[in-house]
Design goal:
By secondary structure, this protein is mainly α. It folds into 2 domains: about 1-120, no CATH class; about 120-160, no CATH class. The chain contains 5 helices and no strands. It has helices at about 1-70, 70-90, 100-110, 135-140, 140-160. Helix 1 packs antiparallel against helix 2 and helix 2 (about 70-90) packs across helix 3 (about 100-110). The longest helix has about 70 residues, at about 1-70. It is rod-shaped and about 120 Å long. InterPro entries: A/G_cyclase (IPR001054), Cyclic_nucleotide_synthase (IPR050401), Nucleotide_cyclase (IPR029787). Its main location: membrane. One of its GO terms (molecular function) is guanylate cyclase activity. It is found in: Membrane.
Length: about 160
């Protein structure tokens, strides 16, 4: 009698155990799918944020270039920079960080085979770095700094003439 009852409820017990296993597996699959969904949303949000930051950095760089150079030169420098970025993106498969201005400096310097130069009669533009200027200006009086710069630029003018 016991065996008969056991065989009668065995399919129900098996069905119950099978249902519990299916519920557990479904729970973990659903939980994994939800985590994957949330992770994808986070990745997309970070990508959008990085794109906005890169656009902002690009605008800041362009504003800086426009503040340094005349409009025609600034347009050319920005165009060269965009060319260099496109080339770098294609060669690096988009893993470029615009955080530094290395590409801008390459564009300003002309890159390989490219120049950003104009001829103006009776005009000389000199880019120079005065080594130790910041340290000197901290310990000197303002008029001493201005006198030093005046003498330096007078000498530059003499050398150019």
């Amino acid at each position: 009698a016991f065996m008969l009852r056991w065989f009668a409820i065995l399919p129900l017990v098996s069905l119950l155990l099978f249902s519990i296993v299916i519920l557990c597996v479904s729970y973990f699959v659903e939980r994994g799918a939800r985590r994957a969904f949330v992770n994808n949303e986070l990745v997309e949000a970070f990508d959008r944020r990085r794109e906005r930051e890169n656009e902002l950095k690009k605008k800041v760089q362009e504003n800086l270039i426009h503040s340094i150079f005349p409009p025609a030169i600034a347009k050319e420098v920005i165009a060269l920079q965009e060319e260099d970025l496109a080339e770098a993106d294609s060669s690096l498969e988009g893993s470029l960080n615009i955080n530094n201005m290395e590409l801008s400096l390459q564009a300003i310097a002309g890159g390989i085979g490219k120049t950003v130069a104009r001829l103006h009669m009776n005009v000389t533009i000199l880019f120079t770095d005065i080594v130790g200027f910041t340290a000197m200006s901290r310990v000197s009086l303002p008029y001493e700094v201005m006198e030093f710069l005046h003498k330096l630029f007078v000498r530059f003018d003499e050398l150019v003439d």
